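Homework help board

Subject: predicted structure for assignment chain

Our instructor gave us this sequence and asked us to write out the predicted structure in C-alpha cell form, then describe one feature. I got the C-alpha cells but I'm not sure how to describe them. Can anyone check?
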Amino acid sequence: MTTSILSLSIVLVGIGATLVMDLWTWLLKRLGVTTLNYAMIGRWAGHLLQGRWRHAAIGKAAPVRGELGWGWLIHYATGLAFALLLVAVAGQAWLRAPTLWPALLVGAVTVLVPLCVVQPALGAGYFAANTPAPLRGCLRSLATHCVFGLGLFLSAWALAWCLRG
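My C-alpha cell output:
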C-alpha cells in the first residue's frame, strides 16, 4: 500500500468512525441524554494556548472566539489520530481485511483519553469523579467509544469493499 493510499485510508476510516460516533450522540440527545458540547473542547483548547491546562469548571471559563468550530475540528482530528493508532497496532493488512475485535479494543481503550485527560482538564475530575453520577458518566463514555470502535470497523470494511469492487 503506497503512503498516499495508506494516509487517505486512515483519514477516511477516522472520519467515518467519528461520523458513526456523532450519529450515536445525536441519538442520545434525541433521547434526552446529555452529551459533550464540543464548544467546551474548543474553549479548553483556546485557554490551553494561553497556558491554562486545567479548569474548575470549563463552562464558567471565558468564551473563546470560534470555540465551537475549534471543538469540532479537535473532535475529528482526534478521530483521525485514533484511526492511525488502530492501523499502527493492527497493521496495514487490517485495512485490507478489517476485523471487529481490534477496532472495538482500540475504541474501548481510547476512552482513557477523556476519562483521564479531558474530563480532569475541564473540571469533571478523573473518571468523572466531580460529576453527580461518575459511574454512569464513565459507562456512557465507554459505550460511546465502543460505538466509535464499531465505526472504525464499519468504515474500514466499507472502504475495503469499495476498493475490491
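Reply (TA_rk): Your C-alpha cells look well-formed. For the description, you could write something like this. The chain has seven helices and no strands. That's the kind of observation they're looking for.
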